Every structure is written in C-alpha cells, then in structure tokens.
Amino acid sequence: MAPPYPGSCLCGQVRFRLNAEPLTLYACHCTDCQRRSGGALLLSMWVERASLEVLQGAPELVSSIAKDGRERRNRVCPACQIRLWSEPTNRPALAILRPGTLEHAGIFTPIAHQFVRSALPWFVFADGVARYETAPDDPAEFIRLWKEAKKQFARG
Prior knowledge:
This protein is of the alpha+beta class. It has helices spanning 31-37, 140-155, and strands at 5-8, 15-18, 24-28, 42-48, 52-56, 60-65, 71-76, 83-86, 94-97, 112-114, 130-131.
C-alpha cells in the first residue's frame, strides 16, 4: 500500500493523512515508554513533519518536561486526548507518529526493538528483528534498517 495513509484519533474529531513513506518504525521497551503507552512497549514511527496533513479538527500542542529535562511536545486530540504524534524540539523536520492512529496500521512492521533489557518477561520478540539492550549508538541506524527491510520486501 502506497501513501497517502489516513489516520485519526479515537473519537474521530481529528483526522489526518500521512502523505509520504515513513522514515522508520521501531519499538521501545524502556520503562518510561511502558508507562506512556500503558503497555509492554511504545511504537515510534518517524515521519517528515511536512508529510502530515490535518484534514479535520485541530490537534492541540501539549508540552511537558521529560526526566532528563528535555521538553516533550505532543499533538493530541482536544476531545479524547489521544496522542497522535510528537514533535521533537531538536529535530524540527521530524514528527514521531503513533502508528496505531493510522487506519491501516497493520501494514507496517517494526524493524527493531530498543531497551530490551527492560522488556516485560512475557514479551515474545519476532525472529530476525534487531534488538538493542539500550538504544543504538546512532539513531540513524533505525533509518538504515528500515531501508534495508524495504529492499528485502521488494525483492520478495
């Protein structure tokens, strides 16, 4: 399936479209992400911020301070408070989309898992997916792995 990829919040008040291919998709198992998601992990899909087009509603910008002192900026639905994407202050061209907000989220598969040292003991990792005890030394590694996986998929 090629872009655009439609998405929305839980209540449907905010609808958007991702107009380009993602840059990467990975899972984080750190305890902060477990708390943020209320689950075993948090999926992060890096996209070009300019490729997100709001079609309906107005996602609210909510700011908070992380444990390390960095500002966290998130776009959320003002009605249902679902976090749609975050906007890193140190990377103004990047948005980190929550892929579960996409209508066809199942077509995307994470290429890596980070902070597996904090993974819940019952979580089962898929074979052949990269794993990092903490995070890769260079976050661009996630983009490289995504491109590699897309080439493998194209070859069949």
